[in-house]
Amino acid sequence: MYDERTCRYALNRIFGFRPAAAHALIGHFGSAAGVFSADRHSLPPGMADLFTGNGGISDRSYEEAHAGLQSVEQSGTRFVCDNEPGYPGLLRECADRPVGIFVRSRSPVTDIFPEDRIFVAVVGTRDISLYGQEWCRRLVGAIADSGEAVTVVSGLAIGTDITAHRTALEKGIPTVAVMPTGPDAVYPYRHRKDAADIESSPGSALVTDYPPGTAPLPINFMRRNRIIAGLSKATVLIESRIRGGGMMTARLAFSYNRDVLALPGRIDDERSAGCNLLLRERIADPVISCASLTDSLGLHRSAPQERKSTDDRKEIGKRYASRLCGEDLDRISEILLRIRGNRGTDIESIAETCGMSYRKALELTMLLEADGMISVDLMQRCTIKIK
């Protein structure tokens, strides 16, 4: 008698790069255990070769899977099959989904991948620019400030990925790192502390479909990227050259009929060439502000943000009631709210989003700066200073 979970573990290992073959077998025989119990002498044409050769379906591969599954569970890593609770709902919809995934986390799997949580992939180049870093932090911060149940997904790589993970943890929202290795390794090694932080953070996890002992070979990253795209409602591309892992993830997300968004960049910057290409091809929608991202994702401003706005209004009332009329009091409150939600926004953008003239926006921001409530740099970018 074959155990169903062990059989699925075996099929995941055998057909990791051909998950469609594993699903076809399970569909034909009714279960993974049925695959291993099948009469090998009466197999349909085209299936016989799946039961032979190195690593094929056999009693030996079942025994190896049994030992492997026991070892994994004893280590604290969980193997979650695609027919079990806790398997990511959106990933289950993908035809090339893995038969099972390995999850390292202190949280129950059902708390990591609940049906009502929104998963947003934030990906991009390893060679991220200062512009990319700044906007990656701003956008992840805006997602966190929405107050919605959102998890940020990325690949633990240097550059964009680790910036997204760290910002999510700093902002107090869960993050999922999908790895190109087995669950017993961290790549790159320099991110082992970050991996430990993710594993121990509530609702966060390290995820892979590679069995223990798998090294980070170049071919593994494409397979990793389809999980990032598959389990996410939307993929946000921060920066990417025309050829790169972030571009692959974005195109995979588009093939899954998921939302794709891209941060526009300078036309002479190779690190933005991929984003600009996706925008030209109309595969991605542009991210032109933090508000445009949260609107595209269907996220809304949270109660904490509203409370901050109320606090700001009280502070403004104390400072400016005798100096400003009611209309300007409302305007200055709106300016503070915009700056708080979009750190580094410039005065021209404030004027546009707040529906006032540039002259009026300049007058009020200069007043706020003179009173020490905001700082304004040489590029007229504003940063809140209210505690």
Question: Can you put this structure into words, describing what you see?
Answer:
- With 387 residues, the protein is α/β, with parallel strands linked by helices.
- The protein folds into 3 domains: 1-71, no CATH class; 109-296, 3-Layer(aba) Sandwich (Rossmann fold); 303-384, Orthogonal Bundle (Arc Repressor Mutant, subunit A).
- The protein is 48% helix and 11% strand.
- The protein has 17 helices and 11 strands.
- The strands form 2 sheets. Strands 1-2-6-5-4-3-7-8-9 form a 9-stranded mixed sheet, sandwiched between helices. Strands 10-11 form a two-stranded antiparallel sheet.
- Helix 8 links the parallel strand 4 and strand 5.
- The N and C termini lie far apart (65 Å).
- The relative contact order is 0.09.
Highlighted features:
single chain; 387 residues; alpha/beta; Rossmann fold; Arc Repressor Mutant, subunit A; two-stranded antiparallel sheet; 17 helices; 48% helix; elongated
- Count helical runs: 17
User: Which CATH-level-2 architecture of the largest domain?
Assistant: 3-Layer(aba) Sandwich
Q: In angstroms, what separates the terminal alpha carbons?
A: 65 Å
User: Helical proportion?
Assistant: 40-55%
Question: Which residue ranges are poorly predicted, with pLDDT under 50 across at least 5 consecutive positions?
Answer: 302-311
Q: Classify the secondary structure makeup into a structural class.
A: alpha/beta
Largest sheet: 9 strands, mixed
Predict the CATH topology of the largest domain: Rossmann fold
Shape: elongated
Query: Please, what is the average pLDDT?
Result: 88
Count of extended strands: 11
**Structurally, how many domains make up the residues?**
3
Order of helices and strands: HHHHEHEHEHEHEHEHEHEHEHHHHHEE
Please compute the radius of gyration using only Cα atoms. 25 Å
- CATH class value of the largest domain: Alpha Beta
The proportion of strand residues reads 5-15%
Please state how the strands of the largest beta sheet are arranged side by side: 1-2-6-5-4-3-7-8-9
